[in-house]
């Protein structure tokens, strides 16, 4: 026979459980995530817990013994008189108890039962959604149900945990390999942080992400690189070129030299390829779980790039989908306690811009709010021909931002260097660019005028 309440545990168990709900606030917080009042078999116990829940919802705090005594002695509404009498008798009895015997057993059994009921409900709901929803949405429903009632960390106690505020907490940052940016960012991107590279199409976003991955490998980190646009072997070749300095076009000619150099790299690299828009953050989270179960501890995660992930939940507007994707990526970084680097594409205004600011980010400006460090890469046609460009630090939680740096970028062998910051402001560079554009346009117009006369 299917059990749908605590009746098989007996009356004493249920009475002990209700007392624990009153006495142990952290346990009540955890239990109420998965608890249903109908799980209690006895009417006076349902009334007891219902009054606790009502008080918490109305006043935002957990009731004390004295408060519950006042509530029970007062008018209990239209409740059956026999149930009211049973409740008052129960309260007098439990108030004389110094503690609950076998409290850990009672809590474990109650939580186990409630969590299973919650999971069963999620599974039944998922069956109804099989025809109308995606696998990721169903997976999210099941995973959310599994998480409910399982967290034993009830938060930071301001008084009891006083000493923790004075412990030095290591960010364990991963260097970017550019001393100029490491200095202002607190030695790189820290664990649980999200970094975003913003650039127009063709500016070298993927090259920058490979550079960042190589720096982590050289620091002995395990790098998990997800590619949603290029093949895994193409990305691997870029790592070869960046580590060894051998130009991409010459890799086949130096196969043995390349292997000799990369086998001594202290970190490990795993490249996982997904077709564009086929993977979601849930897909990546599941893949990371498998790697962790096999003993791989991610030291840096790269997602090339976030805009190409499929949303777990379909929204009406694309900007809302992108915002949730970036929030979920940061969540993955926090769960795995390592940094995540990803990239985002600019809108049309960034295609030939001398300096790209956050106004040029495409679709969802709100995704900038989630990131901890954002820098943009701008390269005009002249820059590409001369292997130059600019990096603009648009956001930096751990230091100054709004800084402009000239860069050297050679895409033939994935070499990127950040030079000392420019003395010119963004406005000066932008106005100079506009002036140069007007001069070139006027010159071209005069030449065409001469040809026609």
Describe the structure.
This protein is of the alpha/beta class and 453 residues long. The protein has 2 domains: 6-147, DNAb Helicase, Chain A; 179-438, Rossmann fold (3-Layer(aba) Sandwich). Helix 3 crosses helix 5. Strands 3-2-4-5-1-6-7-8-9 form a 9-stranded mixed beta sheet, with helices on both faces. The protein has 16 helices and 9 strands.
Can you write the helix and strand succession as a string?
HHHHHHHHEHEHHEHEHEHEHEEEH
Q: Spans with pLDDT under 50 lasting ≥5 residues? A: none
Strand ordering within the main sheet:
3-2-4-5-1-6-7-8-9
**Terminal CA distance:** 99 Å
Q: Please name the CATH topology of the largest domain.
A: Rossmann fold
Please state the structural category: alpha/beta
Mean pLDDT: 84
Report the CATH architecture of the largest domain: 3-Layer(aba) Sandwich
Spell out the CATH superfamily of the largest domain: P-loop containing nucleotide triphosphate hydrolases
Strand content: 5-15%
- Helical run tally: 16
* Estimated radius of gyration: 30 Å
Globally, the shape reads elongated
Query: Sheet with the most strands?
Result: 9 strands, mixed
User: Which class of the largest domain in CATH terms?
Assistant: Alpha Beta
Q: Any idea how many domains?
A: 2
Q: Got a strand count? A: 9
**What portion of residues is helical?**
40-55%
How is the secondary structure organized here?
Layout: H1 11-23, H2 25-31, H3 43-59, H4 65-73, H5 81-95, H6 103-129, H7 135-147, H8 179-185, E1 194-199, H9 205-218, E2 223-227, H10 232-244, H11 255-262, E3 269-273, H12 281-293, E4 300-304, H13 318-336, E5 340-345, H14 367-370, E6 373-378, H15 381-386, E7 388-396, E8 403-410, E9 415-418, H16 426-452
Parallel strand pairs: 1-5, 1-6, 2-3, 2-4, 4-5
Antiparallel strand pairs: 6-7, 7-8, 8-9
